[in-house]
Amino acid sequence: DQQVKQxxxxxxxxEGRISILNCDYTNSMFDYFLWYKKYPAEGxxxxxxxxSIKDKNEDGRFTVFLNKSAKHLSLHIVPSQPGxxxxxxxxxxxxxxxxxxxxxxxxxxx
Amino acid sequence: xxxxIQNPRYQVTQFGKPVTLSCSQTLNHNxxxxxxxxxSQAPKLLFHYYDKDFNNEADTPDNFQSRRPNTxxxxxxxxxxxxxxxxxxxxxxSRDAGRSSYEQYFGxxxxxxxx
Lengths: 110, 115
Known about the structure:
heterodimer; A: mainly beta; 6-stranded mixed β-sheet; 5-stranded antiparallel β-sheet; 11 strands; B: mainly beta; 7-stranded mixed β-sheet
């Protein structure tokens, strides 16, 4: 039973445009959410996070939005750059461990 | 640079032949994790160590064991690998438990092939 779902396996966006990556979760006890970014042949790296007491967190070009009533979060990248091309994992937690989604492969083309 | 190192990057083993994967960290973090990631699936936590305290996930098969002889090193032992154990194995660390466990630092992974 997948508690964290990323229903889009891939996304293709033109450079300079907005990339929106989506994530849904089922466990209402989750109180912290994170996005990780993974390049080929490397491990995932932490990108941005949000606590359940907030609905938005921004860090430069990256913004995460949380809609608790819909159990949905999204990652916005504006403007998208070719170096953003990677796999993005959504993760959630209510304890000492993270539950990951299956990832979305983002490709940013010139 | 402080980092999480996994050796080897690629490991081939035979069906039923024990295999050990290694992870080391220079971050001096208290918590170390092992994840299994199969193709197109989410990374799945197998177990973690908080210092020397071992925490096994309920659905981790008995075939998988782990050792943490000191702060820096952690090993994943697969006693009798089956074809279904072929996967990427990711090691990760976090500074501490609780909220500090949310930001985890990952190694590049070891891709295990079982023939």
